[in-house]
């Protein structure tokens, strides 16, 4: 039988995870990944890559838990293997601290990370402005290494990669049987999902090899994440802000907020600065639709809008996307028989 032609649009962490999962799970498909930007030029590349989730309002918690757990277990296996340095995936321990006690002291992912516990008053003394804290071990997945590693894995599974900007669905419908949309914030421009919007984030990379534990303020505006080659320090959350250039005022305020949490940071050398736009959406969109194009019905699987959790949820939502592609294949088979 002829192979079903699947195209995945997007070369960020969501696109490559989805492409690998489809190519490895569905050998009856030929899989092509198309994108205009590749590592090191995607949003995913600059993400700190810490596995931490927010709770989305309209997605069953069971499904969010599965997304988190599938991603965590997949990355944990890499972190605990010889592939860890090349893939850029490591374990990371530290503290999330809060100025006010949060309503949800035990987030849904607390039982999915390693060794989650509340901080003691004694531990909190170090952070006099903070009243409450959580200590745990999670994963840091550095996409500037992880994306090239996934690309290799995709090619080994028979996948093909092409650099190209896609301007409309019509462009793809004659060459492919199933379209998988992992275009992140790009989804806004294509035919216009007005629900996706940017949340600007600026971060710095600094040299501070003495820092080994992460510290994150629960408000998301101050975090220090030690990584393999440097420490990521951030950040900002500016909604609707499309500016990609570094803002010196943001740099100053990030350093000020983070030095309050970790005074030794003032001695760290700044290596680089970076800005990324999180593809925010009230809920990420992981679903299957039929799009009518020039009299044809083309199955489209959407997988975008992961906001601040793209690295955290990529593998889990990719596995869901595989299930949706499988459903498309079954329907196509059925139609062919009728
Ligand atoms: C400062 C900062 C820190 C972050 N920290 C974390 C963190 O610690 N943990 C975490 O889980 N997440 C974090 N994130 C969020 C994370 O970066 C995103 O959720 C994730 O990168 C989204 O991945 P994606 O693959 O959907 O999008 P992207 O990485 O943006 O990739 C989109 C891809 O689609 C392609 N594309 C778009 N439109 C088109 C088109 N028309 N034609 C062809 N190709 C197209 C692009 O070229 C690109 O290849 C952070 C983000 C920022 C900005
Ligand atoms: C990343 O962007 C730079 C600058 O635009 C470009 O020169 C480089 O070729 C890009 N890299 C990839 C892999 O696309
Ligand atoms: C991706 O989804 C968005 C939102 O529905 C849409 O505008 C865009 O055309 C889709 N892109 C592809 C390549 O399917």
From TrEMBL:
Keywords: Cytoplasm, FAD, Flavoprotein, Oxidoreductase, Peroxisome. D-dopa binds at residues 223, 278. One of its GO terms (biological process) is D-amino acid catabolic process. It comes from the Eukaryota. InterPro entries: D-amino_acid_oxidase_CS, DAO, FAD-dep_OxRdtase. Residues 5-318 form the FAD dependent oxidoreductase domain. Its main location: cytoplasm. It is found in: Cytoplasm, Cytosol; Peroxisome matrix. This is D-aspartate oxidase.
């Amino acid at each position: 039988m002829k192979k079903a032609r699947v195209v995945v649009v997007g070369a960020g962490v969501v696109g490559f995870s989805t492409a690998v999962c489809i190519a490895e799970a569905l050998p009856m498909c030929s899989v092509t990944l198309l994108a205009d930007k590749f590592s090191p030029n995607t949003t995913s590349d600059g993400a700190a890559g810490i596995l931490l989730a927010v709770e989305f309002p309209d997605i069953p918690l069971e499904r969010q838990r599965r997304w988190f757990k599938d991603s965590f277990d997949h990355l944990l296996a890499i972190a605990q293997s010889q592939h860890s340095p090349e893939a850029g995936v490591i374990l990371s321990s530290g503290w999330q601290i809060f100025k006010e006690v949060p309503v949800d002291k035990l987030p849904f992912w607390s039982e999915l990370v390693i060794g989650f516990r509340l901080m003691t008053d004694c531990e909190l003394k170090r952070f006099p402005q903070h009243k409450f804290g959580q200590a745990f071990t999670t994963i840091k997945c550095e996409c500037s290494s992880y994306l090239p590693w996934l690309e290799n894995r995709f090619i080994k599974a028979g996948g093909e990669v092409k650099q190209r900007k896609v301007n409309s669905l019509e462009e793809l419908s004659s060459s492919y049987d199933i379209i998988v949309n992992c275009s992140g914030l790009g989804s806004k421009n294509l035919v216009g999902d007005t629900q996706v919007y940017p949340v600007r984030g600026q971060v710095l990379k600094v040299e501070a090899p003495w820092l080994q534990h992460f510290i994150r303020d629960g408000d998301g505006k101050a975090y220090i994440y030690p990584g393999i080659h440097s420490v990521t320090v951030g950040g900002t959350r500016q909604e609707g802000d499309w500016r990609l250039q570094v803002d010196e005022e943001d740099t100053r305020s990030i350093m000020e907020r983070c030095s309050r949490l970790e005074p030794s940071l003032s001695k760290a050398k700044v290596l680089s600065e970076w800005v990324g736009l999180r593809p925010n959406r009230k809920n990420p969109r992981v679903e299957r639709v039929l799009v009518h194009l020039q009299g044809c019905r083309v199955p489209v699987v959407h997988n975008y809008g992961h906001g601040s959790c793209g690295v955290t949820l990529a593998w889990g939502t990719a596995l869901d996307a595989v299930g949706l592609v499988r459903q498309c294949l079954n329907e196509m088979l059925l139609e062919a028989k009728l």
